Structure prediction request, 322 residues.
Amino acid sequence: MDDVLLSVRNLHVHYPGDDGVSKAVDGVSFDVPRGGTLAIVGESGSGKSQTMYGLLGLVPQPPGRVFGDGAIFEGEDLLAMPEKRRRALRGDRIAMIFQDSMTALNPFLTVERQLTEVLEAHRGVARKAARAEALEMLRRVGIPDPEGRIDQYPHQFSGGMRQRVMIAMALLCRPALLVADEPTTALDVTIQAQILELLKTLQRQLGSSTILITHDLGVVAGTADRVAVMYAGRVVERGTVHEIFEAPRHPYTRGLLASVPRLDAQQKEQLVPIPGQPPDPSRLPSGCPFRARCPAARARCAEAYPETTRLGPGREVSCWAA
Prediction:
């Protein structure tokens, strides 16, 4: 499939515990289009970040266990390759922007050192040349006065500027795949819009693909091409952005959409939260794990996990009531 950069099939990430095995990711499959953006959405604890950690070898084994039927990236299986090879890919062909830029950046190293070591480690670039490339990337991500700020420490940057530094670091080696894990968390709405627009612009310029992990469907609307909705470690619905927004089929997807503020909403229209809490991944109920919170639940939902129904090319839903 020349139009697919990453193809993941039946991925699992499990953790043993006193109450049994916690299935953080339970059989996830998806494709990332070349040059496109896949958004993985869901509430906290749905397994979005754990999916990426499992693929990139960031789950400690033991105690965790990562397995599946394959994760083919540029002809290589991420799940089967030696750790040395996977480490070489991380930061080079695959880069990740982590949720919290303050904890992801090393507080004891200058921004310059944290950027240049990426190029030194993956491309063998000399320190002076690496500094020049780092300065250019800081300019591209919109850091004012990069010559003056490159020698500063992370605590001297605002939250939005730290996030831009993280983006610069991720893009230094021109990766084929960029994973952005909640890249706008804890940023005000103006800075959120700037960061998302920056990611789109840089993606077009570099021709890279993006996986956008978020709980906010509002972020997805103008950013992604395709959407995978996760709940309790599984993908419950997938489709294009237009299909998900115009005709959501899973009650969970409709619940997520109903909780997003809309500019075109009527003045008195209220947001509708999803009742209850996500289930404990080590104590998943029988049948559909969303049934206790679902307004369309029926007796069959307690008996077996819903079969996946194919609604069209790349359009699927797992729900007995869909």
